[in-house]
């Protein structure tokens, strides 16, 4: 009986993965449509759920560290920007409520806040353990809330909708979006995928799934002009940096070069988590520290200037600036 149940569970898991691949690749004649018109009451309902999430995260037992992405800053900032938007559209709420981007955003915000509340309910005592699976899910959700806030501020600059005039940085990318979607601010993933496939064939379900997990930063099955701009800017003639230790933090995160998919994880020495030293009088590291992907320091090469050899890891890099640069959730299941 137990063996049969286990086999059934494995079949469900395999079917779920295959379903994800098919869903990412195959055309869909009727993509999901966002909820109906959003009114002020719907926004206020979402605010109440956001407030509940904040109260759950403020529990001293959770012990959240004030380092980005910091959900206790993100949700209040999201609340303030939504209030600004409602103020700008006072007396013409019907215009805002019928805005497709705003409807998709609010539906996703409602969904993600409910998921966070459920995470606390189901995780129970595990939420108090920093290295537990539920806490990792909370970090993922925090990163998604961060992307959602950045997108909302870009589309509703100063509280006013400017999605139809949003400027995509790269000219060829802007031309593709305009020809495929006109002045639309957001399109369903399946519509986007088909338009991209027409000019750049997507040859497998795994390729489509990897693309979706890279570009759909807000994990809502829609692609916004903001997300498309971020995605296409990854291919500019610039150095890409993987941020391992964001500014003002000191957890010694590193690219795990020996593990599948090379995840970023905190370094461990003799069973203990490692941290970089605080730079007095500040707490944490004073710059954004990380590495250049797809590079390698050769241990066999002796540098003429420093007389040092490579450390068999990617090339280290520091970004000297005023902003805190966050690691970006590129691959993995969206919550």
Overview of this protein structure:
The chain is mainly alpha-helical. It has 3 domains: 40-162, Adaptor protein Cbl, N-terminal domain (Transcription Elongation Factor S-II, Chain A); 165-233, Recoverin, domain 1, CATH 1.10.238; 239-329, Inorganic pyrophosphatase (Inorganic Pyrophosphatase), CATH 3.90.80.10. Helices cover 46% and strands 10% of the residues. The protein contains 10 helices and 11 strands. The chain has a 3-stranded antiparallel sheet with strand order 5-10-11, with no helix packed on it. A two-stranded antiparallel ribbon has the order 1-2. Strands 3-4 form a two-stranded antiparallel ribbon. A hairpin with an 8-residue loop joins strand 6 and strand 7.
Using only C-alpha atoms, the radius of gyration works out to: 22 Å
Shape: globular
Q: CATH homologous superfamily of the largest domain, by name?
A: Adaptor protein Cbl, N-terminal domain
What is the CATH first-level class name of the largest domain? Mainly Alpha
Organism: Scyliorhinus torazame
Protein name: E3 ubiquitin-protein ligase CBL
EC number: 2.3.2.27
Catalytic activity: S-ubiquitinyl-[E2 ubiquitin-conjugating enzyme]-L-cysteine + [acceptor protein]-L-lysine = [E2 ubiquitin-conjugating enzyme]-L-cysteine + N(6)-ubiquitinyl-[acceptor protein]-L-lysine
Q: Could you provide a short overview of the structure?
A:
Belongs to the PPase family. Helices cover 46% and strands 10% of the residues. With 335 residues, it is mainly alpha-helical.
Features:
single chain, 335 residues, mainly alpha, Transcription Elongation Factor S-II, Chain A, Recoverin, domain 1, Inorganic Pyrophosphatase, three-stranded antiparallel β-sheet, 10 helices, globular, disordered C terminus, magnesium ion binding
